[in-house]
């Protein structure tokens, strides 16, 4: 499950298997609107860059788009035949992108009902993707243990790099100069390794192994911090620039299931099995 923080860092949206997304004031911890009601469990939510919209993704493979101002639904839920990996907005907030595990990449114009498919190919299931902030590159990773860089303008594969384990998550930093890659191992999808590469040439800048008891992990938008939750209920923040642990917190009463940084990397929120959402200074 993936929560998201608004770009002005005042609101956090938390999806839930109870078929809702709830909007919270980060400073007060109070709900600021009625829950956004869906017809299936919700596992992904994201704000548009201009904060006018929230897109959500359900376990029914439905894409919903909501008004962030009043919680009104803006589109008829769009159900996909194939399992969706994730969704994201472009910088203007007028287009939405979605990717399926089969490698179909869809661009949705939110002003029209049309979708333009772009086909990305891997030798196995696509697990994750991200789009550079300038809209020039799509980065995908899959169970074929490969990272691929695609040029959006001419739909050409620019570069491919092999990894040791399955690629579980890719994140472009806010400057579009760095790419953080997480790898996972085994049927439990255990986070195992992180690496930072230059973008788009995929030159290795730094890397490290995650502890064997890691449950979930996430990188800050600036690419300088990695936070990961452990099965002993602790959470570690790692400084990738100085190659050291920044701090460890033991304030959770259960496993951390999700981590999300604010756009400026100054704070992050955690979703915990104790049903609490917590905010931390990074």
UniProtKB/TrEMBL annotation:
It holds the Pfam family WD40. SMART domains: WD40. The keyword Lyase does not apply. The lineage of its organism: unclassified sequences, metagenomes, ecological metagenomes. This is Uncharacterized protein. Keywords: Repeat, WD repeat. It comes from marine metagenome. InterPro entries: WD40/YVTN_repeat-like_dom_sf (IPR015943), WD40_repeat_CS (IPR019775), WD40_repeat_dom_sf (IPR036322), WD40_rpt (IPR001680).
């Amino acid at each position: 499950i993936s929560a998201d923080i608004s770009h002005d860092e005042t609101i956090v949206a938390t999806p839930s298997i109870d078929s809702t997304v709830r909007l919270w004031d980060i400073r007060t911890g109070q709900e600021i609107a009625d829950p956004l009601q869906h017809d299936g469990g919700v596992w992904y939510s994201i704000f548009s860059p201009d904060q006018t919209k929230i897109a959500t993704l359900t376990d029914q493979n439905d894409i919903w788009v909501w008004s962030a101002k009043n919680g009104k639904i803006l589109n008829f839920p769009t159900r996909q035949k194939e399992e969706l990996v994730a969704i994201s907005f472009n910088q203007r907030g007028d287009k939405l992108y979605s990717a399926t595990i089969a490698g179909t990449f869809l661009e949705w114009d939110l002003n029209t009902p049309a979708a333009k498919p772009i086909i990305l190919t891997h030798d196995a299931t696509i697990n994750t993707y991200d789009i550079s902030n300038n809209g020039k590159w799509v980065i995908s990773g899959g169970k074929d243990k490969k990272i691929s860089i695609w040029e959006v303008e001419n739909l050409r594969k620019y570069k491919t790099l092999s990894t040791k384990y399955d690629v579980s998550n890719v994140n472009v930093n806010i400057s579009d100069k760095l790419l953080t890659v997480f790898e996972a191992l085994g049927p439990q999808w255990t986070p195992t390794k992180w690496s930072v590469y230059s973008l788009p040439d995929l030159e290795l800048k730094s890397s490290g192994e995650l502890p064997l008891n890691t449950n979930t992990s996430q990188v800050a938008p600036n690419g300088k911090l990695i936070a990961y939750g452990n099965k002993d209920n602790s959470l570690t923040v790692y400084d990738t620039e100085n190659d050291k642990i920044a701090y460890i917190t033991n304030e959770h009463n259960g496993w951390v299931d999700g981590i999300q940084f604010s756009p400026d990397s100054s704070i992050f929120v955690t979703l915990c099995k104790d049903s609490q959402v917590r905010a931390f200074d990074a």
